[in-house]
Task: structure prediction
Amino acid sequence: MANTDQNNPNRVSGPFGSLREYIDAVDKLGQVLHVDKVDQDAYEATGFMYQLIDKVGWSEAPIVSFNKIKSGGRWMDGPVIGNPWGRWQYEPLAFGVEAHGYDQRQLYKSTLQQLETRVDKDGQWPAVEPVEVSRQDAPCKEVTLLDDAIDILQFPFIKTNPADGGAYINTGNVILEDPKYGRNVGTYRCQVKGPRKISVNPERNQHGWTFLMDMKDRGEPFARAAVVIGADPIVFAMSSSKTTRLGQDELKVAGGFLGRPVEVVKCETSELRVPANVEMVIEGEIPFDFEPEGPFGEMYGYIGEHKPENFYMNITAVTHRKKPIFINNFTGIHRGFLTAPLEMTSNLNYRQRFPNVLSVHFPLQTPGYCFIRIRKTNADEAMTIGREIATSLKIAKIAIVVDEDVDVHNFTEVMHTVGARWQPYQATEIIEKAGAMGGDPSSPTRGSGSRVVIDATRKRPDEGGPEVYAKMNRECLLAEKPDILSHINDKWGDIINGWKS
Result:
């Protein structure tokens, strides 16, 4: 259940017991934009999201609820939700932390700091075993469809872009179990292939791929799977990010973030357990022959490749709430999931390896970048750290290392630093070959690419830098007036924060 402030009943914070609790909480803040009806056969929902983000920016845009949507020639009841995780403000809201700050970046950074206080001395998040509930106590079991009653074409799974291969379930959390690795919960796009068939697309070397290929190599005829739709924010974040390692159970780690066990319920046609609070569960069997799949618009904002061979699933059951909520990820337009757990885990891991690493940030609104903030103590340290992080993080095509006085969550500030502290000839390294994101349209070979490491730290004289480095304008202001920004916020914060162009 969500937490309500008794002194202010309109203030609600997580962790939330379900997706709909989270959406209701954001709606109370006046940050859900309700749209009566859109014709997605004419791509009105996609065009709407582009215009909204273009107008107000990805970090300021509200959640959008399309209440009725036309898809595949028929009008269907939603809601279909877009941009559910867009604003950084939603991170502390969802995780139930007391974040402090008067702008989006400060709230996000404060969330990271608060979450770090919850890990153990080894930097590990506590794992909490899920608890099973009865079918009668599972909201996802309100409606059960079996055999001839199954027809997923009756639900508003939409074709987001005209160049996509078809309609997609693009926020489904695919649950697999394996005797060697345990349980895996991963977010993989699923193309709607027919009333009782969908594709399942784990990229090579993702955990789902490892599970399925191991089963195939053992000679198993198929894998039992369940696709969960409409999970609560924390379960969805665990499924969508690289917070866990192979063999770690995302539902156990989600329980650690929630501070309570994830409630699970047994599937109708297998022994798999799925979160009980979700909007819909699609159960099925994944055989180990393949079918074509795609193309599909990827996170980079480009259409991904058509795949001649990919996994698919024959559907054996569908269960759902009476009036389910559907999330569509308008991929490449808005942020896809809550990122604080992923960023916090990366920070802890790299700090253990490099004590002078202060923070690592990969801005999802500009995929391919990675900003690394360090406390520099010797020559060549920045390049050594940047090289290691760039080769180990597949998303880090352009790794930029900056000094401790630079805010890595402020894109403009990082770019100013590059302009003022970086000399391309002296402080750039190109790594010819490294692992790459599967959806990167520039990779000549899928899953492989090159890297650029930029050392944008102040160069010491023994690195070829100037004897004296000029001070920053902001630094001089704060040295003379250290309280000026908080003073301005106290005096004119309502005007500044309330301005909408």
